Amino acid sequence: LIAFFQPKPLAGKRVLLTAGPTVEPIDPVRVISNRSSGKTGYALARAAREAGAQVTLVSGPTALPAPRGVDVYPVQTARQMHQAVMAQARQADIFIAVAAVADWHVKNAATQKMKKTESGAGAPVLEFEPNPDILADVARLDGGPWCVGFAAETENLSEYAQAKRQRKNIPLLVGNLAHEVMDADDTRLVLFDDRGEHPLPAAGKLDAARRLVAEIAARLPR
Ligand code: CTP
Ligand code: CA
């Protein structure tokens, strides 16, 4: 009841998010993917909805239920995620890229199941081709949404995260250490913006998501 009377920091805003992994086929029964449970992205979608936003979530495959009141568009590959996001990005006020997008897809994916006996030296040779960078493409849109990126690094977090923020030309990048966050329920986020580096306290993913939504709302240009 108390929450009902509090001002909603994202009332009237449209928030578009990506979450989960993408999966890239090798053949009809085998895939290459990235490790991501989707928990952080789904928690953020829920927190943005609680904050009064109209929320659309483009999600790779996860085991999670759709957050209440959130429109979910399920996708498999990075190219499908790119297409779904670009179709909706211009209508969004805020874009939050949480998905662990596969950087490459298999160029020579087979249309039928590959058989062990058919691969020459005993193992198939996969050729990779880069996937589109969804966040960078949204950030390039004229009059596009205010963009937030995520980066899970295994080392040199500050240096890599700030460089990534500048390369993708986005106002806010959220960093974490991959081994701390992967599959975990708790998370330790560090915000990188044009004023520098701001560590947030360790918290459960939903509390961290609520805090992050407040940080985003406070930074939005009015
Ligand atoms: N991202 C994206 N599309 C891609 C790759 C990444 O939208 N094809 C987004 C992610 O959702 C995340 C941010 O970009 O918000 C950073 O992703 P990350 O994998 O850390 O960055 P990359 O630029 O792919 O660099 P690298 O993997 O080499 O560290
Ligand atoms: Ca990547």
TrEMBL record:
Catalytic activity as recorded in UniProt: N-[(R)-4-phosphopantothenoyl]-L-cysteine + H(+) = (R)-4'-phosphopantetheine + CO2; (R)-4'-phosphopantothenate + L-cysteine + CTP = N-[(R)-4-phosphopantothenoyl]-L-cysteine + CMP + diphosphate + H(+)
Keyword Flavoprotein: yes
E.C. designation(s): 4.1.1.36, 6.3.2.5
Domain DNA/pantothenate metabolism flavoprotein C-terminal, residue spans: 10-218
Record protein name field: Coenzyme A biosynthesis bifunctional protein CoaBC
Essential cofactor(s): FMN; Mg(2+)
Stretch of the intact protein here: 177 to 398 of 398
Cofactor binding, note field: Binds 1 FMN per subunit.
Residue ranges of the region described as Phosphopantothenate--cysteine ligase: 15-222
GO biological process: coenzyme A biosynthetic process; pantothenate catabolic process
Pathway(s): Cofactor biosynthesis; coenzyme A biosynthesis; CoA from (R)-pantothenate: step 3/5; Cofactor biosynthesis; coenzyme A biosynthesis; CoA from (R)-pantothenate: step 2/5
Keywords noted in UniProt: Decarboxylase, Flavoprotein, FMN, Ligase, Lyase, Magnesium, Metal-binding, Multifunctional enzyme
Keyword Signal attached: no
GO cellular component: phosphopantothenoylcysteine decarboxylase complex
Function: Catalyzes two sequential steps in the biosynthesis of coenzyme A. In the first step cysteine is conjugated to 4'-phosphopantothenate to form 4-phosphopantothenoylcysteine. In the second step the latter compound is decarboxylated to form 4'-phosphopantotheine. Catalyzes two steps in the biosynthesis of coenzyme A. In the first step cysteine is conjugated to 4'-phosphopantothenate to form 4-phosphopantothenoylcysteine, in the latter compound is decarboxylated to form 4'-phosphopantotheine.
A GO term, aspect molecular function: phosphopantothenoylcysteine decarboxylase activity
Binding site for CTP: D103, K113, P132, D133, I134, L135, F150, K164, K168
Family, as annotated: In the C-terminal section; belongs to the PPC synthetase family. In the N-terminal section; belongs to the HFCD (homo-oligomeric flavin containing Cys decarboxylase) superfamily.
